[in-house]
Specification:
The protein is an alpha/beta fold. It is built from 33 helices and 41 strands. Helix 5 runs parallel beside helix 25, helix 8 crosses helix 13 and helix 11 runs parallel beside helix 13. This is TAT-variant-translocated molybdopterin oxidoreductase.
């Protein structure tokens, strides 16, 4: 029987109104522990010799408990709808089809919204779509919530109203028309038929108006070549899935070459099927994504590339243009040309050389091959820029011949090499207008800065190819006082129709039988392209000109990083922190040089005590322009006599201070040509890089990335090229998969999720990394923390170089070493990459081990195994011991050293209310002291199950997805339920190329890899 007796600690408690009683009741300690004078003084704390045991005794349990309480997540109260919108169900995502088109990136996509907020980009996988969202497209949703966006119109730097803007512009147009003054509309490639029609209406109303298309990264030479042959300003399209032999000279077609989007077709031919796979030969200066994935890579300077192109042309077409010998690679070039010719219609040739003659010769080669992969009829329309017209515009501005300049989607004050001439001449224009997302380098100098909505707030149409007509629809109401450029054009031409009505009427002739609603629902209309007839092509003359090429000094090859592109999204922290696939450096651009050239000039890279990477600086001079103190990366595979430098960095205006990094490569982009003759010299000072991967090579560890050749793959058993690791059991060699120290469970009932990664299909593009960021609220930590190896990426893509010419050669060297000293010396030497190494990419995330080492060492059971194969993390249980990270052989766990949410020290997107609108409410925002890692997107698998349950059906065959598998346009990542025998992942589990990472450890992962096969013959 319970006692009802009441006890008092003191007589004072008999007094009900006593303040002392209240104090005792509410506080464990009457007086606070006086720790501030010790813990609050950093100097005395660092100088103290107090031991850890003394420290804990001094602090006491209550202070430790307070510290733990400080690590708990904040409580956020939600306010329900007063009147719930019919189309929104709280807690359920909606998806809208739309099209991204910013003048550089174009893609048919889906936008995931939660309670009216766009939070994630997905690929639109309907048949006929132009999809394959890259890292920048996936990151573009965060740019919607950029707090530095231009929020309202400005006239002469002061806030204004749109009525005043329209009045001022119309008055200037009327004045120009009356006085014969020239009006120039300068835009990027909008690829929008309705906008082109509106611009044409403006020209018709004001006849002195001229429309000039300016692309920051020019494809003008390729456009000129195609136009001269086929009569339309466009670029040839390619379907690499139809090619057995691919030869590229300077074209990074797995990156941003001619708009990108070729990787899905390429990957189809790279997975060995029926003993066949495509052969890819890459000739280039910079190490690119295409070069890293090639079977054979030939590093040459620009002049030698032109010689190689002519040699290939001679062999394929039978021409006899005289060429020079290409040093030690002449034989390899001839072999590549013969293989291309033998492939016939199954061969394809591409080039990225910034020379009109190179593109004319490329067209001639593909015509001679009758290449099935070469498709000029369905030409690409997302590049229309005219370099000559832009050059003439600058001259006209300097001469005072432009009355009114209206710009949309361009930033010439940043992207023009002669930007100083442009900005000085801009002062002579009577009225200058910049339609822009931000008050950038150009908009801050114009008379009127007109804010435009983000593409996720806009209506529009886009013709990406001659067979594709796409619709852009808004997924959220405009956040600020913005107007589309098209609305302004309608106003200036006295057309009172809203742009939506205009667009709907205009699109009626392009819907190919679909209704408007169906086109908006699907996001695009796929039609057929009428054939283009080729005109006369004097390829011999073009080839003869190329054969005269010679290199002097260094060849500077300007390029775009897959993370930053042309620099439009330089204020996007996801992209700034995105590691470059090749160098693994984030938060920077840099000049890449070969090891031989670096040694000759005195350029170096080295690691410092905290694990960071440092490097020399260099001065680069092109003509009369010098770019000073450019950081240096010594890049394996860089052709001797060449240097590379990425566009998109060095911006200052309209960006947060943390994003103002790198140098502006556009300063060296003379005449909008990416190939320049340069001199490079050592500069004073050192540079600190934020590099997420400091090891270079596999050092012969073939159990991490397993490789073989197509010949061995076809002629030998899997046990010879997919070697099963052996362990000792009862003193007998036994297959590691047959030995188990754990009790196993029956996982054949219910779902059991696996993720498959095919190393043959993975190009290292990194779209999955950004998609994971968006889906799982991964924080951005900044350059300083990245430099300390504190990156928070749940998914990393390891890049390895071979130490010898091939990875197979590395194994031979490793196996030949014997004895302690020889082994130490051998492995030390193997850490240095070859002059022209093979490269392998390997995505690594939590392997979700069925026998997970992390689970056994967690003292609070924060990490535990799920019935469906996932390794779970209970964030509110984690106390941050980091034992799990120490025990993880894959090193895939991340520790929150700081609170990255609502912390002014990390002023990226989680520090302001607008940026936090991108946060996925289905995933916790982690607090300081908490361990985190890949969850296999458990919220996505749960959503699929709940949807199927609500609809009264079973889950579809391959309906389950993770963020990374959904983002992977090459199909390298496949996710699903291995208990469903019909699923792709169940079949991949039984594939003879399947293996597990570090299988000999016995962790039994739920992530599988597939042996990389190289076609090296």
């Amino acid at each position: 029987m319970a006692s009802n007796k009441k006890y008092w600690k003191s007589v004072e408690e008999l007094n009900e109104n006593s303040s002392i009683v209240e104090t005792l009741r509410n506080n464990e300690f009457v007086e606070p522990i006086p720790v501030d004078e010790f813990l609050g003084d950093k100097d005395s704390l660092s100088a103290s010799s107090t031991t850890r045991r003394d420290f804990l005794k001094y602090v006491g349990f209550s202070t430790a408990a307070a510290s733990l309480a400080a690590c708990e997540g904040p409580v956020v109260k939600s306010i329900p709808y007063v009147i719930q919108p019919e189309e929104i169900i709280p807690g359920v995502a909606d998806f809208y089809a739309t099209t991204m088109a910013d003048g550089f990136d174009f893609a048919n996509i889906l936008i995931k919204t939660r309670e009216g907020r766009p939070i994630k980009v997905e690929n639109n996988n309907l048949e006929g779509s132009r999809t394959g969202a890259n890292a920048r497209v996936h990151a573009s949703v965060l740019s919607l919530y950029d707090s530095t966006r231009l929020k309202n119109p400005k006239i002469a730097g002061k806030d204004a109203k749109w009525a005043d803007v329209n009045t001022k512009v119309k008055a200037s147009l009327v004045d120009a028309s009356a006085s014969g003054g020239n009006v120039v509309v300068l835009t990027n490639t909008m690829a929008s038929p309705s906008t082109d029609a509106l611009v044409a209406s403006l020209v018709a109303k004001y006849p002195t108006t001229k429309h000039i298309v300016y692309d920051a990264i020019s494809e003008s030479n390729a456009l000129d070549a195609f136009q001269s042959v086929y009569g339309t300003r466009a670029l040839a399209n390619y379907d690499f899935s139809k090619a057995n032999t691919i030869v590229s000279v300077g074209a990074d077609f797995l990156g941003d070459w001619q708009g990108g989007g070729f990787d899905a077709g390429y990957a189809q031919g790279r997975i060995p099927k029926n003993g066949m796979m495509s052969k890819h030969i890459q000739i280039e200066a910079n190490m690119s994504l295409a070069g890293a994935n090639a079977d054979v890579r030939i590093p040459l300077n620009v002049a030698a590339q032109k010689q190689a192109l002519v040699k290939i042309y001679n062999i394929v077409t039978g021409a006899s243009i005289g060429t020079s010998k290409i040093d030690k690679y002449d034989e390899a070039v001839v072999k590549a040309a013969n293989q291309l010719k033998a492939a016939g219609s199954k061969g394809v040739f591409v080039t990225g050389l910034d020379d009109v003659n190179a593109h004319l010769v490329a067209i001639a080669i593909n015509q001679a091959l009758q290449s099935a992969a070469f498709n000029p009829s369905d030409a690409i329309l997302t590049r229309k820029g005219d370099a000559k017209a832009v050059t003439q515009l600058v001259a006209d501005l300097k001469a005072g011949k432009v009355h009114t300049l209206i710009m949309n989607g361009v930033n010439p004050a940043y992207t023009l090499a002669n930007s100083k001439e442009f900005t000085d001449a801009l002062k002579s224009v009577k009225l200058s207008v910049a339609f822009s997302l931000k008050e950038d380098e150009t908009a801050s100098l114009t008379t009127i800065a007109a804010p435009v909505p983000h593409y996720l707030e806009s209506w529009g149409d886009v013709a990406m190819t001659r067979s594709n007509y796409s619709i852009m629809q808004p997924t959220i109401r405009p956040l600020f006082d913005t107007k589309q450029f098209q609305e302004a054009l309608l106003s200036w031409t006295d057309n009172t129709a809203p742009y939506f009505d205009y667009l709907k009427g205009f699109a009626a002739t392009s819907l190919a039988g679909k209704s408007w609603n169906q086109a908006v629902h699907d996001g695009f209309v796929a039609g057929s392209a009428s054939a283009l007839t080729a005109g006369a092509l004097n390829a011999n003359e073009a080839a003869s000109t190329l054969a005269q090429a010679k290199s002097a000094n260094f060849d500077l090859v300007l390029y775009t990083k897959v993370g930053m592109g042309d620099g439009q999204q330089a204020n996007n922290p996801w992209l700034q922190e995105f590691p470059d696939p090749i160098t693994r450096v984030s938060w920077d651009n840099y000049v890449t040089v070969s090891k031989a050239d670096a040694e000759a000039i005195g350029l170096k890279n080295w690691n410092v005590a905290n694990g960071g990477l440092d490097g020399s600086k260099a001065n680069i001079k092109v003509g009369n322009v010098t770019l000073e103190s450019v950081p240096v990366i010594i890049q394996p595979g860089q052709a001797k006599g060449t240097v590379g430098l990425a566009f998109g960095y060095g911006r200052k205006t309209g960006l947060k201070e943390e994003m103002q990094v790198g140098v502006n490569a556009y300063a060296l982009y003379a005449n909008l040509n990416s190939n320049q003759s340069a001199t490079i010299t050592l500069a004073s000072g050192d540079h600190e890089f934020a590099c997420v991967q400091l090891q270079n090579t596999l050092m012969g560890r073939g159990d991490i990335i397993k490789e073989t050749t197509l010949e061995i793959f076809n002629t030998k058993d899997a046990k010879d090229w997919n070697i099963m690791p052996m362990v000792s059991l009862d003193h007998k060699p036994t297959a590691a998969k047959d030995v188990d120290l754990w009790d196993s469970f029956d996982r054949s009932i219910g779902h059991h999720f696996n993720l498959s990664i095919d190393l043959n299909a993975c190009t290292g593009c990194g779209a999955c990394v950004i998609a994971c960021h968006a889906e799982n609220n991964v924080p951005v930590v900044g350059k300083s923390e990245i430099r300390r190896s504190r990156d928070m990426h749940w998914l990393r893509i390891d890049r390895y170089y071979s130490s010898q010419d091939t990875f197979a050669g590395d194994i031979v060297v490793k196996d030949a070493a014997s004895g302690l000293f020889e082994n130490v010396s051998t492995f030390k030497d193997m850490e240095h990459a070859a002059e022209n190494p093979q490269i392998a990419f390997q995505p690594v995330m939590c392997q979700h081990c069925n026998h997970a080492p992390c689970e056994t060492v967690c003292p609070v059971a924060a990490t535990s195994h799920g019935r469906e194969g996932q390794n779970h993390m209970a964030y509110n249980r984690c106390v941050g011991t980091r034992y799990c990270a120490n025990n993880c052989p894959y090193k895939v766990r991340r520790f929150n050293w700081f609170l990255y949410n609502k912390n002014s020290e990390f002023d990226y997107f989680m520090n302001d209310d607008l940026g936090r609108m991108v946060i996925n409410p289905d995933v916790n925002v982690r607090s300081r002291g908490v361990m985190e890692k890949c969850s296999m997107c458990i919220q996505m698998t749960q959503a699929v199950k709940l949807t199927a349950k609500r609809e009264g059906r079973v889950v579809g065959k391959d309906e389950f997805q993770t963020a990374c598998s959904a983002a992977c346009s090459t199909g390298a990542m496949k996710f699903g339920d291995i208990n469903d025998s019909e699923s792709d992942v169940a079949k991949l589990l039984e594939d003879e190329r399947m293996y597990h990472l570090l299988e000999h450890i016995g962790t039994k992962p739920n992530v599988m890899y597939h042996v990389k096969v190289r076609n090296d013959k």
